[in-house]
Amino acid sequence: MHKKINATTEKIYNAFAEVLLEKAYADVRIQDVLDKSGVARSTFYAHYKTKEELLKSICSTIFGHVFSHSLAEEKSHDFSKSSIFDYKHFITHIFYHLHDEKTLVHAILLSQSKDTFLNYLRGELAEFATACVENNFVTGKNLPKSLKVNSIIENFVLLVEYWDETAFTDTPERLTEYFLIMNE
Fold first, then answer.
1. Is 172 left (phi over 0), alpha (psi -120 to 50) or beta?
2. Burial of residue 99 (number of CB atoms within 10 Å: 0-12, 13-18, 19+)
3. Structural domains in the chain?
4. Which of 8, 27, 28, 138 has the fewest C-beta atoms under 10 angstroms from its C-beta?
5. Per residue in 98-148, pLDDT tens?
6. What CA–CA distances, in Å, run from 11 to 39, 145, 165, 167?
């Protein structure tokens, strides 16, 4: 049953990405997604009530696993033997998930849903950024804690936007290096 649900979800996500590349988010209709995906209306509505709920599901799918602290071997990467407290691996892991969904991420970042996506990412990064500051992963900078936390979050968002603009040509490891340099 999970395979069928996963296949349906993937069809819907891919169709949503295609539609976002064709038209503005405000103009996207559920019917557009249904036409592209070949999924029945009742099936779609069994999963999502609105396109906003679909977007939120996409964000949860991309970020949920990474920020859950459960590590398992995956198709494009394996951090299962890494400590969830190893910041460098954690950052790289996030970038791998973004890279795995680069078509979808690109479509979202080109659309009017960009702010929704990036705000979701900011929210997910808040706990991580706070931990980076509290555990002195971020060095120097005689700045207030909240400013350091926000700087980490915004640097990460900036890197995601940069990566998208450069067609995801850098590796997740390289993006992690950039992130570490930006937050020295």
1. alpha
2. middle
3. 2-182 (1.10.357.10)
4. 27
5. 999 899 999 999 988 899 899 999 999 999 999 999 988 877 668 899 999
6. 8, 43, 25, 23
